[in-house]
Specification:
Elements (H helix, E strand, L loop, with lengths): L1 H18 L4 H22 L5 H13 L3 H25 L16 H13 L2 H5 L12 H14 L11 H17 L7 E5 L2 H20 L5 E5 L5 H9 L2 E5 L10 H7 L4 E7 L11 H11 L3 E4 L4 H10 L13 E6 L12 E5 L2 H7 L1 E3 L7 E3 L8 H38 L5 E2 L7 E5 L5 H10 L5 E3 L4 E5 L9 H16 L12 H8 L3 H15 L12
Length: 548
């Protein structure tokens, strides 16, 4: 007790001495200021970002107020913006922009002519099968089927189940079929969403609200690998959930389980694992993450958006994967995109839960609105019944045998490419690819030079950072005869040229990726990204467009 009393007595004496002779208003002012200062210090120390990151941001913000530096930064950003806009002008060259409604109605022929012109822009890039991911199948028969299905279901809306009960029935069937594929029992449930990001966001929303009700958590946090999809970052920003990113093992490219254990605290509302992750295509140790969740009574979400509808068929296809689904008791939710390897049109995904109690916290319910009691299962209120119907049709079109066959072809092609790449000098493979993504890096040259060389040969690959890398996401498009070998031959030829002088820096458009990764001020990288997004909506001035 003396250890407690002694400091307390000293503090009491010090405070009394400090306030001796002070007037009441001075005592109140000093006390209030001290409390406010302590609150500010607590908030500063307990911020979402580390002190180092916040210190860097503050320093860079102050430095950019220097007129000469600010002018230089603005000059570079303006040049970058113009380059993005010039790229848009070149890509859409020859096709006029519509900037106002036509005075009179356009005929069907005129509409389809304009549509064909727009869709023809860049068509050769993806139809050739030289793109990583993006388009997962090109099957004219399937396209015709989903076109016919969408034609008769496009104006339906599951927000009105009394008007469109059949659409709601189809959504329930999609969810149940996918839950079954992931070994969910009769209690497993879920909803369809518009894509992987919304599925991720819905899981985060469900666990945030569940933790608030069940555990009284008011400052929610999630623990996730550094390789987890950026959709979790978006969910954190939208839902005010703090993210604790955990590093990965540099050899296996799987999450560091010891670091994940240390990151768990009383505010943790969910743990995340990827099966597989987007950057490297490796699968985290979901078994151990699920055990962590069980031990600490924390829900575990498995992000299988990218390759989930491969992993569920790989065992039957002769490539047994590790168990990452509801067979693991600690796994409480899974996200899987039907518009990737489910081969449905873009705009559908499924978020699944082990039990309805989690899904209930995904819903948004408003009971006191003057327009009546309102509830919706996902972000959107009105949803396209056409998307539900075309996804449902795509699942039925392929059936179990069709998906197993496609999975066998895709995994065989991915393993063939991986094996060929491992034989090549100057590059290495990140970790052990689990499904269809193969990521490359190099210790001998700037890997973006290889990305640039392959781009000039027509290939469109995904670039990575920290460390620099690139990856190919193998789809059914790459299983065409000779295409996988073409990729290996093009890579081998490009490497031979690069290794003649490996020290040469990357030039052209790929230099931007290297520069962006090295910039210590990430706010500038953010500005560049915003300009790129702006360019998607850019319309060239009329004098740069073709005239009728």
């Amino acid at each position: 007790m003396d250890l407690i009393k002694s400091p307390a007595s000293w503090l009491k004496t010090y405070v009394n001495a400090a306030f001796q002779g002070k007037e009441p208003w001075q005592i109140v002012s000093i006390t209030t200021s001290s409390v406010l200062l302590m609150v500010w210090i607590y908030d500063f120390l307990d911020g979402d970002e580390s002190l180092v990151n916040r210190g860097k941001k503050t320093a860079f913000k102050l430095v950019k107020h220097i007129p000469q530096l600010r002018a230089k930064v603005d000059q570079v950003l303006d040049e970058t913006r113009r380059n993005f806009e010039d790229d848009v002008t070149k890509r859409t060259s020859g096709v006029p922009y519509l900037v106002q409604l036509p005075t009179t109605a356009m005929s069907r022929e005129e509409i389809f002519k304009a549509l064909s012109q727009n869709l023809a822009l860049g068509e050769d890039g993806w139809k050739s099968g030289l793109a990583s991911g993006a388009v997962y199948i090109h099957n004219p028969a399937l396209q015709q089927l989903v076109a016919d299905v969408f034609q008769i279901s496009s104006y339906t809306n599951p927000l009105h189940p009394d008007l469109f009960p059949g659409v709601c029935k189809m959504e329930a069937e999609v969810v149940r079929m996918v839950c079954t594929l992931f070994h969910g029992d009769e209690q497993s449930c879920g909803t369809m969403t518009t894509g992987g990001t919304e599925s991720i966001m819905m899981a985060c929303k469900a666990y945030r609200d569940y933790a608030r009700e069940a555990r009284g958590i008011r400052r929610p946090e999630m623990v996730l690998p550094a390789t987890a999809h950026s959709g979790f970052d978006k969910a954190g920003l939208y839902l005010n959930i703090r993210l604790r990113h955990v590093p990965i093992d540099p050899t296996t490219c799987q999450v560091d389980l010891q670091a994940m254990r240390r990151a768990i605290n009383r505010n943790t509302v969910m743990l995340v694992g990827s099966a597989p992750n987007f950057p490297y295509g490796t699968t985290d140790n979901i078994f151990e993450i699920a055990n962590l969740g069980t031990k600490h009574n924390i829900p575990v979400h498995v992000d299988s958006c990218l390759g989930g509808l491969l992993t569920v068929f790989m065992d039957r296809a002769g490539y047994p994967p590790p168990v990452t689904d509801f067979r693991l008791q600690g796994v409480t939710s899974i996200s899987a995109d039907t518009h990737k390897y489910g081969f449905a049109p873009k705009g559908t995904s499924v978020i699944m839960y082990r039990a309805p109690k989690y899904r209930h916290h995904q819903y948004t319910v408003t009971t006191d609105w003057v327009g009546g009691v309102y509830g919706s299962p996902t972000v959107n209120g009105s949803r396209s019944g056409g998307n539900i119907a075309t996804c449902w049709a795509a699942l039925l079109y392929h059936g179990l045998e069709g998906y197993v066959s496609a999975t066998k072809d895709i995994i065989y092609t991915a393993r063939f490419i991986e094996k060929g790449l491992r034989r090549m000098k100057g590059i290495y493979i990140f970790g052990q690819p689990a499904t269809s993504v193969i990521a490359l890096g190099s210790d001998d040259f700037d890997i973006y030079r290889l990305a640039d060389a392959l781009h000039k040969l027509g290939w469109n690959l995904n670039t990575l950072q920290y460390p620099p890398g690139l990856h190919l996401c193998v789809t059914l498009m790459h299983t065409k005869p000779g295409l996988a070998q073409k990729f290996l031959d093009d890579t081998k030829d490009s490497l031979a040229e690069i290794l003649k002088d490996p020290a040469v820096p990357v030039q052209g458009r790929m230099a931007l990726y290297g520069t962006a990764q090295k910039l210590p001020d990430r706010s500038i990288v953010g500005d560049i990204t915003r300009f790129f997004i702006d360019s998607i909506y850019y319309i060239p001035p009329s004098d740069a467009q073709p005239q009728d």
